[in-house]
Structures are given as C-alpha cells and as structure tokens.
UniProtKB/TrEMBL annotation:
InterPro entries: DUF2207, YciQ-like_C. It comes from Candidatus Merdicola faecigallinarum. Keywords: Membrane, Transmembrane, Transmembrane helix. Residues 38-250 form the DUF2207 domain. This is DUF2207 domain-containing protein.
Length: 659
C-alpha cells in the first residue's frame, strides 16, 4: 500500500541521513576519542646536544570541560619488535633513545610566566598538589615513562611545562649527523589546536646544509623556516592520535663524541627513496579519504537508482491511500483474517480481540460488562467481561479461528474442533480465561505460532512479489562490489596503521550493513503488492480504515446507529484505532444524554473496544504474541449489511445489562 510504502521510504531516508552523519563524523574525527580536555597551544623546543642527547622543553596549555585531580603524560623513549632492522627506515633500531633523565615539571593556572615547580615523590594520592610521580616501564616492545602530575584542576585552563633529556638519540656518520624523532606521539587522545616546534643545535652549524623532512597526516603543516640557529614549523588542528615526526640531516660537526657513530658516509640516495615513498604514502592517505566519500556517494546513487526502478515496477499496482475514497459499508466478501492482511496488519493480539467482538456480533456468545470492584495493582483494564456461549452452537457455524479462540476461552485447549458438550461452565470471564491460558507458556506459544502461520499463508495468497530477481540480485551484487572496493581502500590503499584504520573500518561496515539490510527490506516490502483479484477488496478495507480514522474530520457526516457501530468496532480493533473510534461513539451517545458507565454496561462491546489498547497488551502477554512478519489474516463471516441495521434503535441491543 502506498501509505506503508511512504513510511518505509521515510524510514530509509532518515537512516541514510543518520548514516551520512556517522560517515562524516567518523571520517573527520578519525582517531579522535572522547577526551574531556583539549590542548590549545603546544610549544616544543628541542636542543640537539653535541653528545647525541636531546634537551626538550614542552609548554602545554590545556583546556578542560570538567574538574580533574591532575594530568598524565606518557613519554616513549623507544620500541623494539621482532625482525627490527638497523637501517634508515623510520622504525629502525638506530633511532631509538636509550632513556630519559633530568625531568622537571612546572604548573600554573594563569600562564607560563607564573609557574610553580612540582616535586617528584615516590607515591601520591588524589587531591595532592605540587607533586608528580614517574614510573618507567617496558612492555610489548615499548619503553616509556608514565608521569602523573598531581595538580587539581578547578578552572578551565592549566599551564604545564615538561623539561627533560633523552639520551643517545642522534646518529653520527662520516659526513653527516642525523636525528629522527617523534616530536608529537600518536598516543595523545585529544585534539591539539596549534603545535609549534623549534629545533636548534648546541654547536653552531651552517643552517643552509640542514635538511628537514617532517611527516604527519595532519592537514595543516607550515613551511619549514630556518632562522639563525633555529628550525621552526607548526601544525594546526591536529586530531587526537595523529603523530608528528621529522628526520633532520645536518653537518657532522654538530656532534662530537656520540654513542651511535657509523664509520660510513651518509646514504643520501637511500634517503631520497625513503622520503619519496613516505610522501607517496601520505598522498595515498588523503586519496583513501576521498575514496571513502566517493564510495559513499556511489552507494547513495545505487540506492536511489534501485528505489526509482522499484517504483517504476510497482507503478499502477500500489493503492494510493491519499486519494482513496471512503468506504462506509461493512466489507463482507472476505474473511476477517484476509481483511486484516489487506489493511496492513496490526498484530495477532488485536486480531484475537477483534474475533471475540465478531463472535459477539454473530450472537455466538453474549457479553456482559461489569465494572471491577477492586483492580489489581498496575492493572489497566477496569471492567470484567462475562462471555456466555449461546445454546446449540455447531462447528459448521464457525471458522477455524473462531473455533480455536472458543477452545482457548472455554476449555483452555488448542483445537480446530469445538465440542459444545465438553463445556462445563458456559459463562467465563474474559480476563481470567486469558490469564489462565497464558500461564501455560508452551501452549500459549503454540497457539500464537499457529495463528502466525495462518497469517503467513493468507498473506501469500493475497500478495505477490513483482520482478524480485530484476531488483534484489543486481542490487546485492552492487553492494558486494562497493564492499570489496571499500576493503581494498582500507587495507590496500590507505597507508595508515591498523589503529587509525579501525574507525573508518567500523563506520564503513556499519553503513554497508545498515544500508544493505534496510534497502533489502524496503525492496521486499515495496515489490510485494496485492494481487489484482484482491485489489478491490483492499481498496474497500483501506477505505473503511480511512473513514474510521478521519470520521471526526468529516464535515458532512451522519450519526451512526449503535448496531452499525458494533460492526465498525470490530474493524477498528483490527486496525488498532479502537480507542479513537470508541471516543467518537461515546461522545455521540453522551450528547444524547447517556452517562459513561451506563454506556459501557449497556453496550459492552463499546466498553471492551475502549479498553482494547490495554486489553491488547494483556492478550499479547498472556498468549505470547509474536510477530508474524507483517502478515495478516482472519476467518469470519455473517457480518450484517449496514442497510439491515440502520432502522434498529439503540435500546434494541443484543447485550444484557448488569445493573
């Protein structure tokens, strides 16, 4: 039906928008975690000493959005791994420091001009101030120092300086010196707004002979500036987890006696090859981001293409609810279960209540409503409903669903054959019968499975799927091709390490799975249309549903007799709009001078329908209501034509009062 089709399309569009937001957020914040702080300014001043050590001073301005006990800082001095080589690659063993020494820490709440020294202690507790601890560790090949600065943060800013020496970092060759150092590690889990890096040499060198090769996946990195005895560059908007390192090649006279000394000339040809490869990898990194966006756009276009193709296939076969005419009669050509399926089925529990109301209308059972004297805790149903089966009922008067429900209510059994003679008590209370039946879980579950199976069989009878192979198969192939291209981009094109790949990988998989599942469901739902021989029946039941839903909005409408309302309420319950429709009839009767309790007790079908929302929930709990996959069904007959009841008066109701 078109209304169902529109709901699915709206849901699909909403999901695509949500997925788009996920993609943009995942790509733009790749590697960023939910830190409760950020770094406003990060100034790093490195002095290359003539003995191969580095003297480093870090000035960091933190911005916080919550109170904290202090700060932690990890400084990695080196790492080793199996098959690590002593070569010129960034992961070479020759570029690892031997250790860290001479650590000093200063903190301030106002600025770098007003710093307080922190004292090193063996241990500290939360709430301590002006102290720090240092713990050296070597695990999984990583050698590092964990520094905990105890300085309670009660304002939104904190200024900290870390000053220390890293030993044996620089490498000396016959004709050159070399430094390969990770100035900003990839272990920062917050964003860095601006990082300024300054490098200078303890010994005077000819800056024209110094070559600097910075490496980072950050987008905004400045040109290298050489000024007097300093090298300067800065990086803006550095996302968490993004490292900044650099290789610096300089004259050999900058180093005197160093531990890492190679009696060979520096291999500038190898340097050029490595740096060109790293530059190409950076290009691949950005190309991979572009490919992610292109693949997402292709995915959207593929979905749009197949959605439009699907709409063309079903054009003329879908009922337009918007322009559907009201149907005021009681449809009677099909069974109640068939009408349930044709009206976009609500659920088996609604169908159960609707069938009970139908049995009342057919005078198979008589119903009396009596207000509960004492309700159970949290119980929403306010009335007891006494059902009395009429004398001489035979199986041939009933359909299989009615037989099954009578067996459930009166005998607590599941059977397609109803034996009137087995009934000891011909009057039962509806709530008690349902509760008693529901206590046997296996029986209730079996009952619902039988109902769901019949719903599916009826659905298959009434509906057909149009050209499934021309949509589903090529669409699945398209999604698989996009998936293959996505994995090739992640694992073959992107040069990022696995840790940086994971966010993009997870977001991409989530998008592909969600789009794939939602789209397939949409195609199945849209391509499933009412068979031509049942299309007029579908228009009638949907027209009745529209009429009952919009009854209060109809300007020129005529009062409806209570006997006809009884018929309407069966379908209102089936549609899941009984509460709304009951409100209409109650208001009409109140206008005629009837009191609410009198209405509910005189016309118990109105009362039961009024409580159908609560009753439906109760039935679902007691009978183990399960989804029937959107299938619908019914089995009923004997509904009176509206013209046969128009002359009946309100006081000729077939229900007995309890006063």
């Amino acid at each position: 039906m078109k209304s169902k089709d529109k709901k699915i399309k709206r849901f699909l569009i909403a999901c695509l928008i949500f997925i788009g937001i996920l993609l943009i957020n995942g790509v733009t914040s790749l590697g960023n975690s939910n830190a409760s702080y950020e770094i406003k300014d990060y100034n790093i001043h490195v002095i290359v000493k003539n003995n191969g050590d580095l003297h480093i001073e870090e000035q960091i301005e933190y911005r916080f959005d919550t109170e904290m006990n202090g700060l932690t800082r990890e400084i990695m001095t080196g790492y080793t791994y199996k098959d690590q080589k002593d070569d010129m690659m960034p992961t070479s063993s020759r570029y690892q420091a031997s250790g860290m020494k001479n650590l000093e820490i200063h903190t301030s709440n106002t600025g770098f001009s007003d710093m307080q020294v922190s004292q090193k202690v063996a241990s500290a507790e939360n709430g301590d101030d002006g102290v720090y601890t240092q713990e050296h560790s070597k695990y999984a090949g990583q050698e590092k120092d964990l520094i905990k600065v105890y300085s309670p943060i009660t304002q939104d800013r904190k200024f900290v300086t870390y000053e220390y020496d890293l030993t044996n970092v620089s490498v000396k060759y016959n004709d050159a010196g070399e430094l390969y150092y990770n100035f900003i590690g990839g272990d920062w889990n917050c964003d860095i707004e601006k990082a300024n890096i300054t490098i200078q040499f303890e010994n005077t060198v000819n800056m024209e002979e110094v070559k600097v090769y910075p490496h980072t996946y950050a987008k905004e990195i400045s040109e290298i500036t050489k000024k007097e005895d300093q090298i300067l560059f800065h990086v803006n908007n550095l996302k968490g987890g993004t490292a900044v390192d650099a290789r610096i090649v300089f004259p050999a006279e900058a180093l005197f006696t160093v531990k890492k000394e190679y009696q060979e000339d520096y291999r500038f040809d190898e340097l050029e090859k490595i740096e060109n490869k790293m530059a190409f990898q950076k290009d691949l990194y950005y190309i991979s981001f572009l490919l992610y966006l292109i693949l997402f756009l292709i995915l959207v276009l593929v979905v749009i293409f197949f959605v439009r193709k699907t709409k063309k296939i079903v054009k003329g076969r879908v009922i337009d609810n918007k322009n559907l005419e009201y149907f005021r009669d009681i449809p009677k050509k099909r069974t109640l279960r068939e009408y349930a399926s044709l009206s976009n089925y609500t659920g088996e529990s609604y169908y159960t209540i609707a069938t009970i109301l139908e049995l009342v209308n057919k005078k198979i059972i008589q119903m009396e409503a009596k207000k509960k004297e004492k309700k159970k805790l949290f119980e929403q149903v306010e009335y007891d409903y006494y059902l009395t089966i009429s004398e001489g009922i035979q199986n041939q008067q009933l359909n299989v669903d009615e037989i099954r429900i009578l067996n459930m209510l009166y005998l607590g059994e599941i059977s397609d054959n109803f034996d009137f003679n087995k009934i000891e008590n011909k009057t039962v209370e509806l709530n008690e019968s349902l509760e008693k039946f529901g206590k046997d879980y296996s029986k209730a579950r079996k009952f619902q499975e039988i109902q769901a199976k019949e719903s599916k069989e009826v659905h298959n009878k009434l509906y057909e799927m149009l050209k499934k192979k021309s949509i589903i198969k090529p669409y699945v192939i398209s999604i698989l091709m996009i998936t293959v291209l996505f994995f090739l981009t992640v694992f073959a094109i992107s040069p990022a390490n696995l840790e940086l790949k994971m966010p993009a990988l997870m977001v991409g998989i989530m998008i592909l799975v969600l789009v794939g599942i939602i789209s397939i469901l949409y195609f199945y739902a849209t391509l499933t249309v009412v068979r031509e021989e049942y299309k007029e029946d579908a228009k009638q039941i949907l027209g009745l549903k529209k009429y009952l839903k919009e009854y209060s909005l109809i300007k020129e409408r005529y009062p409806i007799e209570i006997a006809l309302w009884d018929q309407y309420l069966v379908f209102a319950t089936l549609f899941g709009i009984a509460e709304q429709v009951t409100k209409e009839i109650k208001e009409e009767l109140i206008k005629q001078g009837y009191e609410e309790d009198y209405i509910y007790q005189t016309y118990p079908i109105v009362c039961l329908t009024h409580e159908s929302v609560a009753m439906n929930s109760f039935v679902a709990q007691q009978t183990g209501d399960i989804s029937s996959g959107g299938y619908s069904g019914g089995g009923s007959g004997g509904r009176r034509r509206p013209e046969a009841v128009e002359e009946e008066l309100f006081n000729k109701s077939s229900f007995r009062n309890i006063i």
